[in-house]
Design goal:
The complex is a heterodimer of chains A (about 270) and B (about 300).
Chain A (H helix, E strand, L loop, with lengths): L1 H17 L2 H20 L10 H25 L4 H6 L2 H5 L5 H34 L7 H29 L2 H30 L3 H13 L1 H12 L10 H6 L2 H24 L4
Chain B lengths: L2 E12 L2 E12 L3 E5 L6 H8 L7 E6 L7 H4 L2 E4 L11 H11 L7 H7 L15 H12 L6 E4 L8 H16 L3 E6 L2 H4 L5 E6 L2 E6 L1 H8 L3 E7 L4 H7 L4 E3 L2 E6 L4 H9 L5 E7 L3 H10 L4
Parallel strand pairs in B: 3-7, 3-8, 5-6, 6-7
Antiparallel strand pairs in B: 1-2, 1-4, 8-9, 10-12, 10-13, 11-12
Classes of the chains: A mainly alpha (about 270), B alpha/beta (about 300).
Chain lengths: ~270, ~300
């Protein structure tokens, strides 16, 4: 079992390396992180936080968009591509379980995301600490952001596989992936905000809103990193809500989502008839 | 002989259209069986059911003693899809190594396998740069991994040049000699010729004929054609002696049933001195195949 999963992961790494995905993902993260750390380092001091913690707050806002996007871009082809190339029937005649194939792909793609995330955040941290050695006190916040970003990425990789199995065509899977990204990462928050404004402190705001935030992996990720770094709560629009939700709840959501996404992917992949 | 594949009364329909009806097939260890049929005759459907990729509607099927698609069946069965495709970014060596590891084998033997199908020279090139014949050989190489008990090959010789095709059948002979059961499909009888032990002809999802080439030849009982070349001036004499002969392209052309062959030959030899040459043309493989695949109202 382990050998077959690792075999799939190795093969996926070869493919991703040749398709320049490793390079593209890492470059994207590095460029955006550096731009943010340069832009975000100006208003420091007033908040009473070290420079790196401020950069981490900016990076959190960036990652909530960028990490799911990169993950979906890497994963939407995973099943639909095999179906369209005609490589799936042969693969499924091998003594390998479908979930083993998915876990192998997930391992490889998560490893690539890790490289990209570490390269991006690392570059931002290096630049910030070089400018102000005292910023090193924000390293804990950066570490927290790093591992939660990896989990966020793994969640969206799993969701991407599920969409890929659902669509069975590469073009359809790409459309679904972009649609889902827009929905979960952009429109979801706008919708909640509108509902909260309309509700004006009613039951929706107190009961439904916190659950809605926790149910969305991107929001849970943002919540967790913001509640952990109190000093930067002011940066975010959902800052007040972040304080109302205990940290263990957002942490649970972050930890559960990758498993839920993988389960969804395995269930939809099982229904694909080659 | 132990049976590696036993199928009885298999039926499969796609949305009301019957793809296979009442199909029964047996393949024993060491036996090479060719599945013949037009496009759409049901060959690929039958193979996909054997591999467990799709399920049958009714009928019984046992693959190496297990149900199709079961892990123990998949461990013993190798498959070569029609127009085998692979990820273009991988090299041939990487692709074969991957498949070996999926079968829990050390990939150190990958180069030997590629050598066996004559591809070691391109092992470290991307499959995207391969020709169709080379991709087909990668497909063949993966089907050889781990000494499978049953090989299911969907049109394995399509895209191969005549020399590669001969090499392929030699490889097949050695596999069968080692005890592997082979089921291969083709849409041309000429492609499988005498290189298989038994032929099964599918038409419209039914088995319309089964047996060795000689058995099928006898059963079809197609007429034998003869071309007689007359010595100068004797055309009319010969035509008078052989009623039914047609003059075409300077030769006399006649046909007779299998059991009249000797009698007809005797009459021609009686015309000694008037006949310059004689050709006896048995029914071609294509004729036999068309005879069976057109039967059944096709």
């Amino acid at each position: 079992m382990i050998a077959r999963i690792l075999a799939t992961a190795t093969t996926e790494l070869h493919i991703a390396r040749r398709n320049r995905w490793v390079l593209i993902a890492a470059l994207l993260m590095v460029v955006f992180s550096l731009v943010l750390s340069a832009a975000g380092s100006a208003p420091t001091g007033a908040l009473g936080a070290d420079r790196l913690s401020v950069v981490v707050a900016s990076l959190t806002s960036l990652s909530v968009y960028l990490v799911p996007l990169v993950a979906l871009l890497m994963s939407f082809d995973a099943v639909a591509g095999e179906v369209e190339r005609g490589t799936l029937p042969l693969l499924l005649t091998y003594p390998v379980a479908r979930w083993e194939v998915l876990v192998g792909k997930l391992l490889a793609h998560t490893a690539i995301l890790m490289v990209a995330i570490v390269a991006g955040y690392g570059a931002a941290a290096a630049v910030t600490i070089a400018a102000d050695p005292a910023a090193a006190s924000g390293l804990r916040a950066l570490w927290r952001l790093t591992w939660t970003s990896v989990l966020l990425g793994a969640t969206f990789l799993g969701i991407g596989y599920a969409l890929s199995s659902l669509a069975r065509r590469v073009s359809g899977a790409a459309g679904l992936a972009i649609g889902l990204w827009l929905g979960l990462v952009v429109l979801y928050d706008l919708g909640l905000l509108a509902a909260v404004v309309a509700d004006d402190g009613g039951t929706f705001t107190t009961k439904v809103f916190p659950i809605a935030l926790l149910a969305n992996p991107a929001d849970a990720f943002r919540l967790f990193n913001l509640t952990a770094a109190q000093a930067t709560a002011a940066v975010s629009g959902v800052g007040s809500a972040a304080n109302a939700i205990p940290q263990w709840q957002s942490l649970t959501s972050i930890l559960l989502w990758p498993l839920v996404a993988l389960l969804l992917a395995a269930l939809t992949f099982r229904k694909v008839e080659p | 002989m132990t049976s590696m594949l036993t199928i009885s009364q298999l039926t499969k329909a796609f949305g009301g259209v019957k793809a296979l009806s009442d199909v029964s097939v047996n393949v024993a260890a060491g036996e090479r069986v060719a599945l013949l049929g037009h496009n759409g005759a049901g060959k690929s459907t039958l193979m996909k059911i054997i591999l467990g990729l799709i399920t049958a509607d009714s009928g019984e099927i046992s693959v190496c003693g297990a149900t199709p698609g079961h892990a123990s069946a998949r461990a013993k069965v190798a498959y070569l899809p029609e127009n085998a495709t692979f990820h273009s970014a991988l090299t041939g060596l990487e692709q074969i190594s991957y498949y070996m590891r999926l079968r829990n084998l050390s990939p150190s033997g990958a180069m030997d396998l590629l050598d066996r199908v004559g591809l070691s020279f391109a092992a470290k090139r991307r499959i995207g740069t391969y020709s169709k014949g080379m991709r087909q050989r990668i497909g063949l190489a993966q089907a050889l991994i781990g000494h499978p008990s049953l090989l299911v090959l969907d049109e394995p010789t399509s895209g191969l040049d005549p020399v590669s095709r001969r090499d392929f059948y030699e490889l097949l002979d050695s596999l069968a000699a080692d005890g592997a059961a082979v089921l291969l499909s083709s849409h041309a009888l000429t492609e499988v010729e005498a290189r298989t032990d038994r032929l099964i002809i599918l038409s419209g999802g039914r088995v319309v004929a089964e047996g060795t080439l000689n058995e099928l030849r006898r059963e079809a009982a197609l007429p034998v054609a003869m071309n007689v070349t007359a010595l100068n001036g004797y055309d009319t004499d010969i035509q008078a002696a052989l009623p039914g002969a047609i003059r075409a392209e300077g030769m006399l052309h006649l046909t007779c049933a299998q059991d009249e062959k000797l009698a007809t030959l005797a009459r021609i030899t009686a015309l000694q001195g008037k006949v310059a040459d004689l050709d006896v043309i048995p029914p071609s493989l294509e004729d036999i195949y068309s005879h069976f695949s057109r039967r059944d109202g096709q």
